Amino acid sequence: MAGRFNPRTPTRTTVRGGDLHVPAPTQPPHAGNGKATRHYTPPTPLDLGLTLGPLRRGPADPTFRTTRDGSIWRASRTPEGPGTLRVALRNGTAEAEAWGEGAEWLLAHLPALLGDTDAPEEFAPRHRLVAESARRRPGLRLTRTGLVLESLIPSILEQKVTTDEAYRAWRLLVRKYGEPAPGPTAMPDHMYVMPDPRTWALIPSWEWHRAGVDAKRSSTILRAVRVARRLEEAAGLPPEAAAARLHLVPGIGPWTSAETLQRAMGAPDLVTVGDLHLPGIVGYALAGDRTADDAAMLELLAPYAGQRHRATRLILLSGHTPPRRAPRMSPRDIAAL
């Protein structure tokens, strides 16, 4: 387990880009006309939407936009400050532009973001459905952002509520307490960088309530941002140690840590346990058992040890899900209480 710390006391540990262990840039970014640019050619086919799609929190996520020309825009709070990244694929090459204090950091980490640290060749399908899903999506890569908090906070908001509720809360809080994303006048409208840890900590209780966030989730976020620097360091740890560090914060369990580290670290073997639907989906796809629980799911995924997260993504992408019998979970209007 990682060294213990008090999740209620801020620390002074700093985070450096080198701690993330990403490959050195093959082409250094360069600045010009108020922006930094970089071209990167992935060694294997890349599907930009499939790779970066998990970073979007709903169709109106103010930190993520897809434009008609196929470009993906992301607004992030990096260790160097706020930054906006635009990525587009042209003839197999990723053309990237970045703005803001975090521009150079974003471009330096572009290969990892696009799956350069991923190893899909290590994946061996054991089921026909998984093999067919993998064959149809040769460009799927597991992204690695190197940023923990930007995935942790929305994952906490998604605890035990509908996705629509969580997406709404994220959208409202980021727009109200974040800052406009740096970039050109031609960038998509209403893009924001999420608030910094201090701003999250100062959001008054009634604003959490208006966003539909109950006290349990807001308290977990407040505990997390107090030790934000220590949590950001988790991106440079082995997955088990990273998860253990996150679990030291009360309110963060295996479901939340897996959802966070799958994105921040590109961890190919971290399975989301404790999910309401995933065990039944995996059980139905691999064994025709829609009643599977976490234990049964993990047993079915055992042949994919080391790549279990990739296996679950391919199962979800296959669309082979059990017919719905029970009514959908109804949203709770916390703000009206």
TrEMBL record:
Residues 46-57 have a biased composition (Low complexity). This is DNA-3-methyladenine glycosylase 2 family protein. The keyword Chloroplast does not apply. Residues 1-67 are annotated as: Disordered. The keyword Nucleus does not apply. InterPro entries: Alkylbase_DNA_Glycosylase/TA, DNA_glycosylase. It comes from Streptomyces melanogenes. PANTHER family: DNA GLYCOSYLASE, DNA-3-METHYLADENINE GLYCOSYLASE. Keywords: DNA damage, DNA repair.
